[in-house]
Amino acid sequence: MGKKLIDVMDTTFRDGFQSVFGGRVLMKDFFPALEAARDAGISHFEFGGGARFQTLFFYLNENAFEMMDKFREIVGPEANLQTLSRGVNTVALDTSSSEVIDLYAKLFKKHGTTTIRNFDALNDVENLKYSAKAIKAQGLNHEVTITMMDLPPGCKGAHDVAFYEKTLRNILDAEIEFDSLCFKDASGTSSPHKVYESIAMAKRILPENIPVRLHTHETAGVSVSCYLAALEAGADGIDLAASPVSGGTSQPDILTLLHAVKGTRFDLGGLDLEKVLTYEEVLQDSLRDYFIPLEAVRVSPLIPFSPMPGGALTANTQMLRENGNMDKFPQIIKAMRDVVEKGGYGTSVTPVSQFYWQQAYANVMFGDWNQITPGYGRMVLGYYGKTPVEPDPEIVKLAGKLLKLSPATKSALEIADGDPQKSIAYYRSMLEVNDIEITDENIFIVAVCGDKGIKYLKGEGEIQLKKKDIMLKGNSKMAGEYTVVVNGVKYNVDVVEGHDGQIAVTQATPAPTSAPAVQATPAPATPASSGGAGSVEIHSQTPGNVWKILAKNGDHVKEGDTIMILEAMKMEIDIPAPQSGVIKSINVNVDDAVADGQLLATMD
Prior knowledge:
Number of helices: 20
CATH class of the domain at 4-291: Alpha Beta
């Protein structure tokens, strides 16, 4: 009996880049490695979508559609090029309207896509219906997806085999057309046994001609075991990456799995070990100048307690570094457990993972549940669909009160379709106002990238990379990034060589995050202290950047009035007046980076 041929999708150039570099890798730097991958016989690639669409515009000053076209040119017309879509969100963090979803499918087909993996973080089948229809209408392969994770220890109510079977049967009952099924575990926390039982369940239910595959991450250290369990249960395909963007927060390495299946009845796509080794050598050389964060290449036994997806972990730690509060990372991971449990057990994958992260960050920085971040609050109120279990009623009540919203009564798509600011006409008007050419591509870029898209299209985009030469000055062997422990707390420091040859330790300074900010409402009262002669000082409670200043010297304000808004970790944080009085001074300017405890304003 011959070996079973297993389809391998190479995720290096999408999920690998996202998991290790936050998606920030320039085209010119990775195309030589792509050619080597092609020459190694790989013909199935994840090449775009997900966060890897927005990051090109936000951080690289590159056009994602241009990247997709060039990618297709390199690998040829027969390769299966796959993208990742978030159901009714497509490649945005918020719900798209029906006409934007239609445009999304049209453009991704136009720019080289073969297959779209389509998921909903809440496993709400209602959120998959229209996007599936749009994908199939363009003649694309639709890979419907069930999102997985293990619940934090002691939690129960969803994310077991019975829950996944119910989800699959809901997909079938909804008559959603699909060509393959994927179980996607973005946090890599599912146990091998659950993976085996879930794949076996799906193979029993589905027709033989529907392939089933598993996608997971090495984040919690069990990915290889999960893949072997999936194969034994009948999986037809798995996702792997190539070093140096494999393992750790990414997918396990192609070479590792080739080794793991030796002597078994499985053949990983007929791949040749030596040719893959050559490909990985080219990739490592291509990425030699990119800084790889320590947390990107390590597995963490703490991840199942969060759970934090590999694709989001390094993007979030990068923001922590930029905001100067990387020391808060262990506390945020710990705080996520409570946030996940009270939020209704949506799968920790974009955008829900970001909602969890923002709320956990707020709980750490401002005290437990002193504020509700909009993404999290709108999720528990039902604005993004139905969560797997009912959220904590007290949190739902608090979210409604603080966000001044009633629970949703319509589906996420109905809400988006009723919003005039999510229409094609609105995005066309944004282009017209900014004197930008109106094309389908430009309309879509603005629809999913907002003001950052406008900035890119006006030629004002920025390149924000984490490369070694940014940190390393000269050839000092001491230069680099180190982790030090002070009083039991870990800190990341950059050691650089100055122009005078002296070695110095530089502290991370707050810098703007190049991602759409969302408002956190309300912020707790800002600590105030006497500034002398009856004045009161207002200080920041978190590193960040000045987003807006709403008051000026001499203004009369009431207690609780917002006098300015800071931006940190994709959140807008209100700075309220601690008492009624008159603004005496505003001590910062718009776009200023501020440190924890920095003086923002004074009032009498």
